[in-house]
Amino acid sequence: MAEKGTISINAENIMPVIKKWLYSDKDIFVRELVSNGCDAVSKMKRLVSMGEASLAPEEGEDAWRIDVVANADEGTLTFTDNGIGMTAEEVKKYIAQVAFSGAEEFLKKYKGENGENGIIGHFGLGFYSAFMVAKKVVINTKSYQEGAQAVRWISEDGMEYDLEDSDRETRGTSITLYLNDEDKEFANLWTLRQTLEKHCQFMPVPIFVSEVKNAAEEAPKEGEEPKEAPKPEQINDTHPLWLKRPADVTDEEYHEFYHKVFHDYDEPLFWIHLNAEYPFNLKGILYFPKLKNEFTANEGVIKLYNNQVFVADNIKEVIPEFLMLLKGVIDCPDLPLNVSRSFLQNDGYVKKMAAYITRKVADRLLTEFNTRREDYQKYWDDIHPFVKYGCIRDEKFYERVKPALIYKTSAGEYLTLEEYKNKNCEGDEAIIYYASDEKRQAQMIRLYTDQGKDVVLLDTLIDNNFISFLEYTEREQKLKFMRVDAAADGLTDDGEAMSEEELKRLGEMFKKATGDEQLSIEAKPFKSDDLIAMITVDEQSRRFTEMSRQWGRDMSLPEKRTLVLNRKHPVVHWLETAEDGERAQQVCAQVFDLAEMARQPLVADRMVDFLKRSNALLTLLIEK
Q: Backbone phi, then psi, for 338, in 5-degree steps?
């Protein structure tokens, strides 16, 4: 038999075909051809199980396989399976008619009673991705049907083909790609192995990779023993961990899987094993990796699979954006292998899946908090940026996980908001005092802790946004966050107020010494005797300024800063009566800089001036 033909394209399915040719990653052809081989094997296994086909005597149930062989010298790749094979008529039907779905037709006839089928894709459509890298493609196939003639299909452009009899004797299909010159890298064994591991690491049929060596290179030298041909290497795990029942998986297996798949040699903090069957079929494992505080640079990897076939990393339409900080695998057979973003955005099942995954993550956090709080507190520092980001992005997630939100204090305790309020607040007051830099604000923190008030540490990039989110969401609770340098309330005693005239005179002295005409001055007796003064900055204006800087925008407003003097301190007593001369100006400038240093570092010329002034004041002290 020998005949020529032209590829027939089903017009109503032309767009999926075009999309196949517009893949951004050429290596996708490997996934498509191996998937087709898996389909062919799955079909044959199904027919054997139903008694409609039989295996050869030498074949066993463990004989199923796909072989991928690279020949760098010839610039070819060959994909061979021992599946169902095809007759000449089937080749013309499934290959020569591009948009015809062989798997779909097969399923209509042989789908199991429980709805499971194990058929991955649509044979005949993904096959044409081979022409993204090949100048010529040859299919050599023999059907399982008794007496069927093996055939060879050859095409050099994907549009015209030759079909002829073949001398193939074994059931199955081999597809050989003669690679374009610019795509011969795929015939390199290392590149091929990497590509197979990326796309086919968990496909359900054993996949073996090998290479054909140059005969001259492999020939033994005189006196040498003949070299043993390298054995094909299996590159996939046909029974991935996510398909097992959680009760059957050990912690060691979870850890081993994490290291193998994500090449992360840190230990995961904990994990969630997903297993849903209704209203959609979804399985997977999500790991909580150890996050750095600068979490924005630590995007995780969540791999999406369809029946163990890799689809893509980090598809935000399926995985909520804030969960992208996790690492994991999700296998969802209900999603097609090749989907458009617009389809995912508008698909009801996808939205339900995203909601299910979010709920399971929140439930796991609650379980960890309620049953293993001591361990939960140990890794809270690693996961809290992710949790806070999730709360901001998804209000339902926040409502569910709210009881498990804890706050680390400067004393090393971890308190929920309720615990903090019960311990530190009176009546309806709900002010949470916090520090954004524990070391820099140590003196300010001590002022509060000396008065028996806990100070929580909120020192990551997300915290400014998070506390604003909490204040808005919990506005009925009149929740308010106050940084330790935002006000002197609670740090001062009642006492005789300084007269307006005295306060005005001191204010003029400090404005002159600092050059800050907008500086406000207050004088109050502090509960602490060893602090001369503190600078307070209005909470809201400072937050706005910091957030605008965080997002790279110059939208900062003038900060409302107040210098609060401690009337109990001898230096302030001296300034109340001192003449406004050079010495008083030096003292005012020094007091102001010391108060500023309790908040943040002095920079550039201001630090130079501070050091010169400090030396001058020490000299005066000695001379005195």
A: -120, 110
379 and 269 in contact (C-beta within 8 Å)?
A: yes
One-letter amino acid at 608 equals V
How far apart CA 595 and CA 563 sit, in angstroms, is 8
Q: Determine if the peptide bond prior to 246 is cis (ω within 30°).
A: no
Q: Which of 136, 179, 127 is nearest to 156 (CA)?
A: 136
Instruction: Detail the residues annotated as belonging to a binding site for ATP.
Output: 32, 36, 81, 86, 101-102, 173, 341
Number of Cβ within 10 Å of residue 441's Cβ equals: 23
Give the least confident one: 22-26, 46-50, 269-273, 494-498: 22-26
H or E element in which residue 248 lies: none
CA dihedral angle for residue 409, residue 414, residue 418, residue 422, rounded to 10 degrees: -60
Residue 392 burial (CB count, 10 A): 17
What six digits make up the tokens of 547?
A: 């957030």
Residue 11: what pLDDT? 39
Burial class of residue 248 in the structure, from the number of CB atoms within 10 Å of its CB (0-12 exposed, 13-18 middle, 19+ buried): exposed
User: Which helix (H) or strand (E) is 434 found in, with range?
Assistant: strand 431-435
Would you give the end-to-end CA distance of the chain in angstroms? 116
**Mean pLDDT, all residues of the chain:** 83
Tell me which amino acid residue 525 is. P
In 594-605, which positions are buried (b, 16+ CB within 10 angstroms) versus exposed (e)? Answer: bbbebbeeeeee
Say how many CA atoms lie within 13 Å of 224 toward its Cβ: 8
Classify residue 263 by its DSSP letter.
-
Least confident of 106-115, 263-272, 404-413, 478-487: 106-115
Task: Quote the pTM value.
Answer: 0.75
Which pLDDT score is estimated for 476? 84
Q: Which of 421, 440, 548, 422 is nearest to 484 (CA)?
A: 440
pLDDT, one tens digit per residue, over 274-330 is 988 877 789 999 999 876 545 444 556 889 888 898 888 877 767 787 888 889 999
Binding site: what residues are annotated? 32, 36, 81, 86, 101-102, 173, 341
Mean pLDDT of 474-480: 86
Instruction: Choose among 602, 582, 584: nearest CA to 593.
Output: 602
Angle in degrees, 0-180, between the axes of helices 463-473 and 373-393, rounded to the nearest 10: 80
> For residue 487, what pLDDT is reported?
76
Kind of pairing between the strands at 270-276 and 282-288: antiparallel
Which tops the pLDDT comparison, 87 or 280? 87
Nearest Cα neighbor of 204 from 231, 172, 257, 243 is 243
